[in-house]
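# step 3/5: fold
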Amino acid sequence: MSAAAAAAAAAKRGDWITFGQYLKNHKPPLTLSRCSGAHVLEFLRYLDQFGKTKVHADPCPLDALIGRLRAAFEENGGQPETNPFGARAVRLYLREVRDSQAKARGYGYGVLGGGSDGSSNRVVLVGAASSTAARGSMIPLSALN
C-alpha cells in the first residue's frame, strides 16, 4: 500500500469513527440502519460546530468526506441502495455548497435552454477566469450530474 493509499484509508477510518460517535451521541441514539440523508446533514452541522469542516476551502472537503463515508458505509455492511451518504438531500446540499463556492470565486453556472428541435439543456460555466490557476480550481461540470 502506498503512502497516499494508507493516508486515505486512515482518513476514511477516522471519519467513520467520528460518524459512529455522532450516532452514539445522538439523542436518542441512532443505529446505522435508521440513519437517513437528513441525519447526514445533521452530522455535517455537528462537525461544523467543532470547526472540523471548512465549507469554503478549495477543493471542497465535504465532497471528499462524504465520498469516504459513503465507501465506509458499504465496506461495513451497508447496502448501496440504502446508503444515507448517497441520499438525494445530501447530493443537493453538496451541489448548493459547490454553487456557493463558485459564486464566491466569481463564477456562476447558467443553463442554456433547449432548442426547438428537442435538444436537452446544457450547463455552462459563466464568467470563466483567464488564469491557469483559476481554471484549475473550477468545479468540473460532471460533478453537478
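# step 4/5: annotate
Residues 114 and 121 are 5 Å apart (CA to CA).
# step 5/5: archive (pending)
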